[in-house]
Amino acid sequence: MSRRIVVLTGAGISAESGIRTFRDSGGLWEEHDVTEVATYEAWKKNPELVLRFYNERRKQVIEAQPNEGHKALVRLESKFDVQIITQNVDDLHERAGSKNILHLHGEIRKARSTYNPALIYEIEGWELTATDRCEEGSRLRPHIVWFGEEVPEIENAAALAATADIFIIIGTSLNVYPAAGLVNYAPQACPVFLIDPNEVGGTTVRNTIIIREPASKGVPILVDKLLSAYTSK
Ligand code: APR
After folding, report:
1. Which residue's CA lies nearest to atom 29 of ligand 1?
2. Catalytic residue among 70, 93, 103, 105
3. Pairing of strands 101-103, 120-122
4. Distance from Cα 170 to the centre of ligand 1, integer Å
5. If you measure from the C-alpha of residue 179 to the centroid of ligand 1, how many angstroms do you get, rounded to a whole number?
6. In the predicted model, what is the mean pLDDT of residues 161-175?
7. HSE-up (13 A, CA, CB side) for residue 89
8. Ligand 1 nearest-atom number relative to CA 22
């Protein structure tokens, strides 16, 4: 059995692909009020605004390309069992070619029924409109986990974290729970690496090896190191 690497990614890994992060200066939450666009209450109050906000984000995601950070993670699969847990709603890990990707906060290129959450659809193109309906006739909403909503995949993510031999954190401010707490499920002996060009506050209780670089540079450095340091068995 190959060693398992669990990777937790956040907005920072997609920053160099041109997708804005949330909390950096110039980040999305500087310009938009979270409560007006990313909550269920916002959806009830002003669905058009919410749809517009996500349509805009979706357009940018479609235009973006995976960067060297996403691509380097794919190389890890030659020697390791790699499981990516991403907070990102973009599909850049998929388009880079990574195999096992769990989306904690949803997927922007999908919509789901407001009545039956099991009905999930790929959105063709960039636009989800107020008249789009599921096959049972209910309105479609963005397939996004909004603030205040449950994170349906968190138990699966925690179970994956618990099986990590190596844990890597890339480009997340670790501000948002439960995602920020996932590293605590990793076994005590599991080395933890963190790649971020900025200081990440209140990270972890354990020893973390910090690589203070942007993802496009830091991820390839770490991947090369891991590929040469570990054998496949
Ligand atoms: N490479 C790596 N990391 C970077 C880069 C880069 N080029 N540029 C910025 N970063 C780092 C920042 O230093 C910061 O630590 O990425 C992190 C981005 O943090 P946030 O904007 O808070 O994004 P994230 O942690 O993914 O947010 C979590 O919050 O609003 C919600 O649902 C949204 O999934 C998101 C969640």
Report:
1. 176
2. 105
3. unpaired
4. 9
5. 12
6. 97
7. 22
8. 21
- Tell me the per-residue pLDDT of 67-95, one tens digit each, with 9 for 90 and over: 999 999 999 999 999 999 999 999 999 99
pLDDT for 202 beyond 70: no
- Sorted by sequence, the CB contacts under 8 Å of residue 90 that are 6+ apart come out as 14, 17, 19, 61, 64, 108
> What pLDDT shows up at residue 230?
77
* DSSP conformation class of 158: H
| Any ligand 1 atom below 6 A from CB of 10 | yes
CA 231 to ligand 1 centroid distance, Å: 32
Summarize pLDDT for 203-232 with one digit per residue, the tens: 555 789 999 999 999 999 999 999 999 765
Distance 149 CA to ligand 1 centre (A): 20
Q: Is 27 in the pocket of ligand 1 (CB under 6 A)?
A: yes
Contacts of 33 (CB under 8 A, 6+ apart): none
pLDDT at 201 over 90: no
For ligand 1, say whether the CB of 32 is within 6 Å of any of its atoms.
no
Domain boundaries in the chain? 1-18+67-105+151-233, 20-63+109-144
Cβ of 12 closer than 6 Å to ligand 1, yes or no, is: yes
Calculate what percentage of the chain has a pLDDT beyond 90.
93
Share of the chain above pLDDT 70, in %: 97
If one looks up domain 1-18+67-105+151-233 in CATH, what number appears?
3.40.50.1220
Name the fold adopted by 20-63+109-144. SIR2/SIRT2 'Small Domain' (3.30.1600)
> Residue 136 is which amino acid?
E
pLDDT digits (tens, 9 = 90+) for 3-23: 999 999 999 999 999 999 999
* 105 is annotated as an active-site residue: yes
Q: What angle do CA 181, 178, 95 make, to 5 degrees?
A: 95
